[in-house]
Amino acid sequence: MGFPEERPRRLRGSAALRRLVRETELSAADLICPLFVVNGRGVKKPIGSMPGINHLSVDNLLPEAAELQARGIPAVMLFGMPDRKDRQGSAAWDPAEAVPRAAAVLKQRFPELVVITDVCLCAYTDHGHCGIVEGDRILNDPTLELLARTALCHAAAGADMLAPSDMMDGRVAALRRALDGEGYGHLPILSYAVKYASAFYGPFREAAASAPAFGDRASYQMDPANGREALREIALDLQEGADMLMVKPALPYLDIVRRVREVAACPVAAYNVSGEYAMLKAAAERGWLDERQAVLEVLLSIKRAGADLIITYHAKEAARWLVEAGGAPSGR
């Protein structure tokens, strides 16, 4: 059959019909909101390259968490900004630092909010790399012990889930052994299994003051040209004990999200990263696009590609817009 028997527009004629046959649903329950936590009190400092996102001290984190939970967002991911940095990043496993303190307070005040902590050293080292440095090399195996210490610190503070983002080989196994050995075998690991060496991390590096002092991270993050390698990475991480997998960034790698979804039985997350956030904000500020429609379309595309969960700086706004838009962009 062909035209006029085949008329796909028949199922697009009204909002009710479109909702009835919609293939992909996006809701606030799919979103995880990243938060930047700092030491001190009364701190709410805007991040220049990420309009609407702030550095927050723990006291100012609480109203933010309350609003997120009220909007139906089930989880937050904590990133820390220490007062001191050194070659090893020792503040990363200091229980007096912002992330463990924030995790403890959040779980006390909002027990139903899932608190995920980023486990990495880059924001804590004075060289900005995610591992121990020797000359111009980033050492893999010696770094694993420090990552395990960091994970145990966060677990002791009350984190619900640990998310290693360093891309050192074997780090999931190192965390799993450490957590199991210290009585935290019940805590899941969300692995940044597929993390590309991407230009889209720029605003985050300002936010976390984590730009490398020399070189780049191409020796440990993935080559953007590689797709099959992603499947190797997820197979290794699952074998080592990962409970969930992440693809990062999201938009330039929707094909990878789909490939991971097709082979992995566990939940898959995608990180809608800082550069993706910033470029939409910049275009919206110039009136070049409708921010609400663009953001919801982007998030829907990530969900359609196969992500079960989306880590996004748009989480709070998107939760409100989803209610207003009925779950999807309306089109023009």
Order of helices and strands: HEEEHEHEEEHEHEHHEHEHHEH
Q: Strand content of the residues, in percent?
A: 15-25%
Give the strand tally.
Answer: 12
Helical content stands at 25-40%
Low-confidence stretches: none
Would you give an account of this structure?
The protein has 332 residues and is an alpha/beta fold. It has one domain: TIM Barrel, CATH 3.20.20.70. Helices cover 38% and strands 17% of the residues. The chain contains 11 helices and 12 strands. The chain has helices at 15-20, 58-70, 98-109, 141-157, 171-181, 202-207, 228-240, 254-263, 274-285, 291-305, 315-325; strands at 31-38, 44-46, 54-57, 75-81, 114-119, 132-134, 137-139, 161-164, 190-195, 244-248, 268-272, 309-312. The strands form 2 sheets. Strands 1, 2, 3, 4, 5, 8, 9, 10, 11 and 12 form a 10-stranded mixed β-sheet that branches. A two-stranded antiparallel ribbon has the order 6-7. A hairpin with a 2-residue loop joins strand 6 (132-134) and strand 7 (137-139). The longest helix is centred in the middle third of the chain and has 17 residues, at 141-157. The radius of gyration is 20 Å and the shape is globular. The model has no long low-confidence stretch (mean pLDDT 94).
